[in-house]
Amino acid sequence: MTRATRGCRDNGGVKKRTGLLLAVILGLLGYGVGLAQPYVLRTPLVVGQDAAVPDAPARVRLAEAGGRVLVVDPAQGDARVAFVLYPGGLVRPQAYEWIGHALAAHGVRTLIPEMPLDLAVLGTDRAERLASELAGGLPVVVGGHSLGGAMAASYAAAHPDAVAGLVLLAAYPPDNADLVDAPFPAVSLLAGNDGVADPDRVRAGVGSLPAGTRLVTVPGAVHSFFGRYGPQAGDGVPDVDRATAEAQITAELVRFFAQVR
């Protein structure tokens, strides 16, 4: 075999290996883009998507306050309190529109903001702008589901004089958010079969909330029952239907908002 022949074969092997490596790299890039797409390209903010609540009419609109906001107002009469509701991580605002409908009949204006990349941790102080631009001078209760609840607690701890109440749905305050001496009421709801939020941490988190905070367990419910976004990976198995769980969630929230002034 001549040196020239060996050189041709070596070059061919190098080209084959280079082509294979390039194919692998392109495949990995494509896979990465596929994984990232749902996080970067979020679905549109939709009004009225699966938000029906029996006998609970409401007026719904989209507004702007440092970003898009889903606003749910009483169908008749004026609201007496505003509720800023931070969505759970990677959950679209419309998943919680049903809560706004359920509370509208009780004089609550619900403001559900769209967060950057649907992560409340990137918009912890969003409630401040919502309160100034959309609350209309009403007392402002902040709250949220899961990660959204933790960030709402963080905001409340940093702005105690601007908050009239705190609602945690399958959530607990961050370690640096001490609300024991906060001048407002709070309530914490725990899904009985939650497989996402650590029940022990939710229970322990009540110790960092204002004195008199009620911890309410929704029997048989799971983490995803607080929002209408479908089953969630790692969640528990419900022992109750969603309608029953939503009815208890609504009853507890109505009870809480009745004491907010």
UniProtKB/TrEMBL annotation:
One of its GO terms (molecular function) is hydrolase activity. The keyword Hydrolase applies. SUPFAM superfamilies: alpha/beta-Hydrolases. It holds the Pfam family Abhydrolase_5. It comes from the Bacteria. Keywords: Hydrolase. Gene3D superfamilies: alpha/beta hydrolase (3.40.50.1820). InterPro entries: AB_hydrolase_5, AB_hydrolase_fold. Residues 83-236 form the Alpha/beta hydrolase fold-5 domain. This is Alpha/beta fold hydrolase. It comes from Propioniciclava coleopterorum.
